[in-house]
Amino acid sequence: LSINLDMSQFNECIETRKYKEGVEKDFLDGINAHVRATPTFFINDKIIVGPKPIKTFTSVIDKELKS
Fold it and tell me: Whole-prediction pTM value?
């Protein structure tokens, strides 16, 4: 299996920690938003955790649109 990854670019990114600050910010944002699992979805103040059928999303969205 090949994903055509540029290993030199990948290693440079890891070694220089190029995205460390952004990843840490995203991580802290998730903690502050009470994310405990992935995927987690936010629809207004409603939180949907885990993979769910499309019916779950349409139901929540329809209720939110009516309120």
Answer: 0.66
